[in-house]
Amino acid sequence: MPFSVRVVLAVYRPDPDHFETQIRSLAAQTHPPERVYLVIADRSSGPLAERLAGAAGLACALVEPDSDLDAVRAFEAGLAAALEDADDDTLIAACDQDDLWHPDRLAAGIEALEKTGADMVHSDARLVDGTGAVIHESMFRFERRRKDPGLRGLLYRNNITGMTLLMRARVGRIALPFPAQSGVHFYHDLWFGLIAAALGGVTLVDRPLVDYRQHGGNVVGAVDRGGRWRLPRWRKLDEVWMRREAASYALARYLAHALYHRMIEAVADGRLKEGQATLSPLRPFLRRYRGGGRIFLDALGLAARLHGQLARIALGFSVVALGRNVWILREALGPGRNEALDRFDTRLYSLSPGMPPAAPNLPEDRDPGAPDPREQEPAPFQLYTDQRKEPSWTPEFTADGPAVNVLIPTLNPTEIFAGIVTALDIGLGLAERGLNVRFIATDLPVSAFSTSRAFVKRRLTEQAVAAGAADRIELYCGVTGSTVPSHRDDLFIATAWWSAHVADKLIRRHGYTHTRFSYLIQDFEPNFYAWGPEFADAWASYELDFRPVFNTTLIRDYVAAQGFGFAHAPDALAFHPAIDISRYAAGTRPDRGGKPRRLALYGRPEVPRNMYATAIEAVARFTNSLDLTPDDIEIVSVGLRHGPVAVYEKNVVRSLGKLAWEDYPGFLLDCDLGLSLMYSPHPSHPPIEMAASGMRVVTNHFGPKDLSTLSPAILSTEATGPAVAEALERAWTMPPVTPAERRIDLGQLGLSPDAMVEQLARALRRELEAES
């Protein structure tokens, strides 16, 4: 029986001309596709996609998700649709929206699969620019890709480009669902390639079968690694280097374990037979303690074959693997190991000869300038002072025009929580309104600029993209970069107390025109600390010269109550949380079909103000008081991963950790009761999102904060174990949340984020125009 081919094509704000060119190239295949599955990832391009496919004579099916999808989620949704009634002779091809397939793209792939028996085939690609002009005849030569890296080699660097691949249906069946990730750290083509390499193998058509269009809107883009072989340039082997290498090693290790677990599942549920998958190449990444030596040998082999960059990657992995074992030993020995050894030796010497060895006796007439071996090496002062307050980069005044510098702790998607997202969105809103914006990471080095850039720009609205906002945004790492391009008229936005000190010092030391910065205040940060240096420094940040921007009137009023007059200054701004209530309130709650009711706890043990210990105490009291068993209630924790906690009658709080953004609304809809504490004036998002999803939620009040005024679905109480437990008992017996209770008006907490950004943009523009 001849193969039939189904094409999965993700559509996200396409260039109409490029998209039409691609659609026509699909229709012109010598082996035409059976059907094209158009995933409308932007939720707005459906009519255009359907019209172009129809005009080209292609049979198509629209896959229309409930929310915007990134590239990986879009292909996951399209693959699921394409596999619904697929048989073993069905092949799946991945397609991008703005490339160009050569007429034999599918036919050549089918021929290669039939000849080799492989599970996947991919090809080289020709690089073209936005107009179709050829940049390079071979992506493989342009990026110096290995043609046959093998299963383990794919973990060092993926050599498969998604829009060139064609795979058997069984690869897709095993691939679903894709391993979870926060943001986009790996793409579907790598996951498909790993599965195929472990099964029937991956083969290459060593000539271009597609034109890859390289332009400013590429999700990934091709990277020039051509030229003659040269030794890789080594960076300083410091903590920043280790962190960067660790991020890549972590992804490789994660994917190795994900593949290993997926193959076990596939054998268990009958998708594969025992022994069909070959996973031995993954052993260096699967072993608990060993593996670094094998990776080091890989590095030597790659270097011998003149793959300098790949050798550097493998060598970096081996260093991280060794560092992991060293860290494990240090943790096992404990931070007090030296003190413990001293105590042991004291007891040891008490047995014989009865006293410890004496310190060396030095002559009294010794040179006073000579080092004293009895003295410890002096510690640098930076060890005891908070270096976050100090700029770690120097402005380089080379920028053509002024920008708004948004000082942000991290730009790594996995480290971004709601507060940082708010700061990002303010910067993006300013870019939409015509201001140049420079995001500068102040605390943590950027692990991968491409990942961070994609994460930031994907948060742009369609209107912002149309307004050219993407071209006005730049990302810089203030941790690893010694300089940042700047302009004397730059403006600053601080997003935490230490970055307020950084902004103030940059302005004073380097002679910026504008001596006042904007300060995003999202909580009363002195209260994060015991009385001491950090408390004092956070308090001192409120005495600098700035325009306050408050995340809610609640925080503004609390700051005012502490005696700070700036809280009610004429130019002070306050906005309500940037929560899309409709994203949660519009969802349909599923029928749990007699399953135990589910309680969702926002659990972040490492964050004191989230009152994790109080929440656990309250859950234990609540389940005990009502004599609830696992047949009555399921307790899950989301936020930060922690170990399981036994509470009462075999009830266990099980942690799911951080959920993917796309999965979060569906998770809340499937929960009945919520518990989210925040011992500060900041309202926090989870209680509001839970209530909008139709859950009864218990939280605490603090100062002017009482979230029960937003919805009867929210029960606000004292932040003590007994009080929270009593509120949970009341919530347990209350009737289901009504649609009216799910409609929450955030207006009482301040301006809408858009209105606030509009006012802030006008104020910043006036400052810039005053100097022009």
UniProtKB/TrEMBL annotation:
Q: Where is the WsaF C-terminal domain positioned along the sequence?
A: 597-729
What are the Basic and acidic residues biased-composition ranges? 363-377
- Coiled-coil annotated spans: none
Q: Where is the Glycosyltransferase 2-like domain?
A: 23-140
Record's SUPFAM superfamilies?
Nucleotide-diphospho-sugar transferases, UDP-Glycosyltransferase/glycogen phosphorylase
Report if keyword Transcription is assigned. no
Region Disordered: start and end of each range? 354-378
Q: Does the keyword Metal-binding apply?
A: no
Q: Which residues form the WsaF N-terminal domain?
A: 404-552
Top-rank taxon of the source lineage equals Bacteria
Instruction: Tell me one Pfam family matched here.
Output: WsaF_N
Provide this UniProt record's keywords sorted from A to Z: Plasmid, Transferase
GO MF annotations in UniProt: polysaccharide binding; transferase activity
* Descriptive protein name: Putative glycosyltransferase
What is the species listed in this Swiss-Prot or TrEMBL entry? Salipiger profundus
